[in-house]
UniProtKB/TrEMBL annotation:
One of its GO terms (molecular function) is hydrolase activity, acting on carbon-nitrogen (but not peptide) bonds, in linear amides. It comes from the Bacteria. It holds the Pfam family CN_hydrolase. PROSITE patterns: CN_HYDROLASE (PS50263), UPF0012 (PS01227). Residues 2-253 form the CN hydrolase domain. Belongs to the carbon-nitrogen hydrolase superfamily. NIT1/NIT2 family. Coiled coil: none annotated. This is Carbon-nitrogen hydrolase family protein. The keyword Hydrolase applies. Keywords: Hydrolase.
Length: 274
């Protein structure tokens, strides 16, 4: 059995202040015996309009996170960071950036996932409408990272609403799905926990949903409630308090294999062509 930590944060626009919280949470995770810690979306800097400014520091921030992973001998799913270039190194010329989730081992960055589904949605909150595609270029590649405790399928926030991605990650060998997020208060209240459990049930993967919580500036409010669900779709734990929090849950690969063998969903799946 392996222990895995999931983080809730209230990140603001001060990168150094956010890093102080990040290091404190890593220490808490290590004290609980965890092998992995998952941070939420925008965990290093949460500030509208500063994506390009933060993206210019992508490699510097990546190196800093790699140093923390090495120093504390822990795997890190680095929530999301804005990045000005694609996985092949080509620069995004139109001024947009990519939303990137990194999987970092104690030795190096092992995998990079660029968020595929962009949040172009009307929401009944103080912001009103969100159009990520104006500021972000979507990724195209499905990514599974191999670790000593199981294969991690990388997802981000709005990706949770698309079961096809979770099923594709499962088909490519994922045991664990990570979902760093910054759900709006409105949509999170309605769907966050439901989506975590549904995607875990669909894919028979354990799912780890790291989350932003609270106010970020005057208009943006996120739901929080970082949580995890097991391979049966049962809720393992969820945060109900405000601010920076951490939960640590077990992952048992042998138990997951037994769940999948007793109900072989992937073998029973029929692809319908309407």
């Amino acid at each position: 059995m392996t222990l895995l930590s999931i983080v809730q944060m209230n990140s603001q626009n001060n990168i150094e202040a956010n890093f102080s919280v990040i290091e404190s949470l890593i220490l808490q995770s290590k004290a609980q015996g965890a092998s992995l810690i998952v941070f939420p979306e925008n965990f290093v800097c949460f500030a509208a309009g500063k994506q390009r400014e933060t993206a210019a520091r992508f490699e510097e921030i990546q190196q800093r996170l790699e140093q923390l992973a090495h120093q504390h001998q822990i795997w890190i799913v680095a929530g999301t960071l804005p990045c000005p270039f694609r996985p092949d190194g080509s620069v995004i010329e139109d001024g947009r950036v990519r939303t990137v989730s990194l999987c970092i081992s104690p030795e190096r960055t092992e995998a990079r996932y660029d968020k595929i589904h962009l949040f172009d949605v009307q929401v009944g909150d103080a912001v009103g409408g969100y159009q990520e595609s104006m500021f972000f270029e979507p990724g195209t590649d499905v990514v599974v990272a191999k670790t000593p405790f199981g294969n991690i399928g990388l997802m981000v926030c709005y990706d949770l609403r698309f079961p096809e991605l979770a099923l594709t990650l499962r088909a490519r060998g994922a045991n664990i799905l990570t979902a760093p997020a910054a759900f709006t208060y409105t949509t999170g209240q309605m769907h966050w926990q439901l989506l975590l459990q549904a995607r875990a049930m669909d894919s028979q993967c354990e799912i780890l949903g790291a989350a932003q919580q609270g106010w970020h500036g005057e208009k943006r409010q996120t739901w929080g409630h970082a949580g995890a669900a097991n391979s049966r779709g049962q809720l393992l734990d969820i945060v109900h308090a405000e601010g920076a929090q951490l939960i640590t849950v077990p992952f048992d690969l042998a138990e997951q294999n037994a769940v999948r063998a007793s109900m072989p969903l992937m073998q029973h799946r029929v692809l319908l062509n309407y």
